[in-house]
Amino acid sequence: MLGREYLLAGHLIDRAGMPQIIGRSGREAMQAVAIEEWMGASPVYTRRVQRALGFAGDDVGTIFKGMQLDIGAPHRFMDFRFRVSDPLHGEFWLASCGALMDVEPMGEDFVVGMCHHIEDPTFDATACATNPRARMRPLHRPPREPADRHPHCHWVVEIDPSASPVPEPPAALRVAASRAAGVEIARPAAEGTEPGGRDAYDGAFDPAFSLDDLSWPTLVVALDEVCLQGHLLAHSFLWAVEHAVDGGFAREATGRQCVGIAGLVASRLARMLGLEVAGSARRGAGALDRIARVLDLHPLFRPRVYVDLRVAPSDEHLSVAVGPCEALAEDGRRSWHGLLADPDPPPVMEALVQGVDPRARVRRVDPPGDAVLAWEITHDPGADPLPEPPEVTLTHFSTGAAFDLERG
Q1: Number of helices (H) and strands (E), helices first, in the chain?
Q2: What's the rounded Cα separation, in Å, for the pair 258 and 310?
Q3: Residue 29: is it exposed, middle or buried by C-beta count within 10 angstroms (0-12/13-18/19+)?
Q4: Cα–Cα distance between 86 and 221 in angstroms, integer?
Q5: Whose CA is closest to 350, among 341, 340, 105, 342?
Q6: Is the pTM of this model over 0.85?
Q7: pLDDT in tens, 184-222
């Protein structure tokens, strides 16, 4: 369940970021940012997950394996179905597309923008990360005619050995130079864990693959890789806004993006863990304990090899710090955590904590020891609940915000 939450969290990053671009520069600028953003991040994290789960190859099945572990295709919210005909040919279709459900109410221009202008180059970038002679082409796609057409779209994938190879996107070369792209995620020891499951996704492509199929150590690596996909996407988003919109606006837009996704994901994790304030089966759990649990699992602070999160509880407050780490060392501080080190940082931690309990309060404090960033979190059950930050409210407009991953 946590893995599905992480995949959906990564997918919803755009729901937090793209409204900032539309509000500032309009739909066409948003499309330009989305294309550059995904073409920058997708090839990099696709190759990472292939290495991490041991399924390197250059055939259609390998392309599809990567898509099954991609934040662009979160399980159940995006109901991808696959068929491999032979190593050079395959097809996929979406029995249901949550992203389409988000944009259809916005009108045909937005549907065409996503399902044509954005997907054409970004799907090819994903495929070409595995084989630069691969191409994805639609059999049909929205706008839907008739309006209730199913599946929502249908694509063929073909590898033509005689085709000219597609060059690596310049945006992917930038993202590949980031520290996030180069971190090494260690496989944990299996001692004391439940045996069974796959240690690698090698062998034949499995159209019914699920994260539940993996052994515990491999699942831990896969989840960290999924969280890292989100960091790579945010890194690419910042670059793309600088290039396609405005360099001065890029950090502001990325900060608001982080506020929106941090708060939304915190509330979803609290609900998944039964730690939400209202109606919780674990209502007796202390507020600071609930917040500490969500902080520990929040993808903003994972993988730990990239973000050095430190949480120290006490009876009166929760001390939270980020130590020196790769996320803070990114060139130009092009990471969410680099934004938190700005002189006027976005209220990310406030949004995250309020997503768990709106009666909690956050105060920036001097970092202890070698820490770079630090906060003190307190909770007063008699305090008035704080209003939801507008960036979080905006992200809630996505149908994914309330999507039930158990029911699909």
Answers
A1: 15, 8
A2: 19
A3: middle
A4: 29
A5: 340
A6: yes
A7: 999 888 766 777 889 999 999 999 999 999 999 999 999
